[in-house]
Records
---
Amino acid sequence: MRIAGLGVLALVLTACGGQSEQVAGVAQSVPNVVPAAKVSVVSQGSDQLSPRSPIVVKASDGTLQAVTVTNPQTGNTVKGDFSPDKLTWTSDDQLRYGATYQVVATAVNKEGKPVEQRSEVHTLTPKGVVTPTLLQPASNGTFGVGLIIGVKFDRDVPDKAAVEKSFKVTSSPEQGGGWYWVNKREAHFRPQSYWKAGSTVKLETTTFGQEISGGVYGGADVSATYKVHDSWIAKADGNTHQIQAFHNGELVKTAPTSMGKTDNTPPRGPTPTFNGTHTVLGKQAHMIMDSCTYGVCEGQPGYYKAPENWDVQISGDGEYLHENLATVSVQGSQNVSNGCLNMNTENAKWFFDNFNVGDVVEITNSGGPQLNINNGHGDWAIDWSAWQAGSALHG
């Protein structure tokens, strides 16, 4: 009786332990089964993945060991990073439109047994692409306080508000500002007043992969960082026939000048300089000025083709600060030029040496019309309230 009792006790203990089961009166061991690792790819087989969205690979019942994503059309490998727990891999490269990416992922379970998953990810193919370029290209140099930045597109933008939301401008120190759509393809940005000397300004677009309208998507993004140098502002008055230069607010130069003529003197009649705020667009030490570049060609009244020195361009249609020895006798007393601001050699060379892209030339009392925003960078001539109304978001 004592032996039989011990046998019953042993069977009860074994059953309570849960580590074996009785088969034909004999306890048998059952091994634990470790599940195989599983791999899943976000948007696998989808034709709708936006190229601005990452490819994401996930593991369950194990961890990722290796992930390779390749564009077979280009042979390029897509870069990406694992999460700290190795459960997720996320791409951090920019994808392409209309591409097929081959994904090869290996995961291991808790026993270290590997499993490989092969799949494809397809990015969407847009009906059209609107691609931006920079109005003011990036440069290793610096710019004046009148710097105008902006974005130009290679086709009309159907939804300007949606695109404007994707623009980002930051400045240090912070100065705010606003966008103004010049037309259906071009938008400019400026603060209410000139940039502060010494500022750093960064422009970025984030339209890539964004649907603009009806299946049309944004093209490759652009960005640039601009450094603003000291404040250089010239003030030219058509009544006094003088041009003054201010460096960081201090008057450092006054010179006589001759602006564009406003009377009907033959052979061309009035050629007044534009009123308003101009900015320097570029400069050349020596150039041939040819009136045919704006429609007055050889054989027509008023045609000229002459070498000019120390040329600082301030408008798109050919206004310059430059040397003109033929008008020295009336510089400071009469406006007789074809629209440029004429000076003698010494003064023209001084402005050439000190004024650079983005520096400001404010012209008053010239007798001419207001400088247009499309004529170079006439943006500063627009009243701030009107500028704000030119935004697709706030107009």
---
Amino acid sequence: MKVFLTSSIGGSYKENGKRIPCALDDSNNFLELLKKYWPKNPKCLILSSDPENQEVNDSFKFIFDEAFKISNLPLSKIDICDSRNENKLADTIYDYNLIFLAGGHVPTQNEFFNRIHLKELLKSYDGIVIGISAGTMNCADMVYAQPELDGEAIDPNYKRYLNGLDLTTISVFPHFQDAKDLTVDGLRVVEDISLEDSKIRPFYALVDGSYIFVDDNKSTLYGEAYYFNNGAFTKVCDKDKSIQL
């Protein structure tokens, strides 16, 4: 299995409130590496982050079908797995050689993945997995589900650590370029939430365009990223550079 853990891979932009397909982000030679492992006439399955939101799921499917074509990564088939067909996943997942884990709300997606027994199904999967944002976060053995919605940061029952898909031991905090200016429930996302949580378990913060490639238990980080551990963070890689983790 080849696993791409990304913060964002581009593929669309907004114009007059409408999302328009475009080429994938090729920062840090992402497309070059992806094309190296791209199957012939791949069949792609998108795993939703919100199985009940069929309108958004269908839009996501359309956007990325077009984005892959624009990026010269054609697909022979693209489907989405959500509440409409989740009961068929165990019988169909191995028909696909490319699995796409969508972005969204981490706990919602995590609950869906548990419901469809995705962790167990992926143990016998031998294709490419691409995670985006929440999809990347849920790939870890132990997921850092950072609070992002109003009420989550101050809710004593909100679980910040969840069992994930166990495709990597690396926990990821995406969209770091935006998080530095965000607050949740009056708390600063980086200073008051992330740094405190890193005292419990370390994680890597990725800016959009950076990614981690996992192949045969070897993990390589590409692009700008930061390591959070024990209440502090340090820059560990720059754009257009790479390091072994």
---
Amino acid sequence: MPNAQCQNSALYKLNRPANQLTTEQQALQEQVIQFCLANAHAEHATFLIQGAAGTGKSVILSSVFKALQTLARQTPTSPLYGSQNVLLVNHPEMLKLYKSGTTTAPVLLKKDFQRPTTFINQAAKNHQLADIVLVDEAHLLLTKSDPYNHFNQTNQLDEIRRHSRITILIFDEQQVLKVKSFWQQQQLRQRIEAAPHQTAQLTHQFRMQAHPSVENWVQTFHQQQVAALPHDPHFEFKVFTDANELYQTIRFKNQTSGLARMLATYDFPATLNDGHDHFVETSTFKLRWDRYQPTAKTYWAEREDSIDEVGSVYTIQGFDLNYAGVIIGPSVTYDPQSERLVIHPEYYEDQAAFAGAAQLADPEAAKQQIILNSLYVLMSRARNGLYLYAVDPALQAKLLSL
């Protein structure tokens, strides 16, 4: 792997040295450490870190955890020496990435990183109380029971806080992808404001190497509005009339720049773990969905064979690409009269994402928000270029007109 690509790899960025953090990141890390020191004996305290996709939330959390484990395991003079700390993430690819980083950091052990359900069930069984629990992708925490995934309580955040003195959360409500993880700011704040707490907001965009107008366009699209395409000589933003042409461009970019992959909304049939390939297909294009490989040592986009696959929102969430080719499926259409996107949950193939929606005040709005969030995740992956193709003729025509 060329050196530039090595520095863009997920593992490198997640485990970059503290002296390579920005001034803002270093200040936030120190703020979190001081919060932990001040609340080491509190009954419970919560530190909430928020920020849009690409603002370096996981980088901060990884660096904070390494600093905490250094104090806990190598600094006898610290009040945090001997503290029992753990980092949780409800995302198997991210968990794999965190565990890979233990090979270069002696203060970290693979057992330090767990899925939330594993931690909750073990802590409940053994009546354990952790000192500090860090949660990456906290927007993926379950807000209702899920017996299929061995979570029988009602809310994962409540259970994590029940079994920890201090909780440090990374949260972005725009990245909630399932109704069973449906969070809103009001629900979150009600939980943390009853005890000592601090919040921080990350704003600097590290992923998109582009003018802020590019990120603003993606945010506007997430709000169901289609604005004029931004022009940035340093970021390639292009609409394709043919999905296969888009794919060939992605293949070329992968050869010349690395980390270029196809992505699609979950509007094409797929069944997890059934032993068969499933395909994303248009009139000119057919490529298999990403194959589930739980034993793979590298995450999806950094595997060589994934150039011959289409990544889903679950595969790519939390990770970067240099170039992203996004196929917008039939669940996202455009109404020329209202000049807004129209969302069709009935066309979304991941109907399991809507399980439990009937219990919400506005089930249809929740389903539409899940689809918009998934689209936002897909469209916010690219560092250097975003390519789009829409299945809906009206949306495709609108994008081309821009």
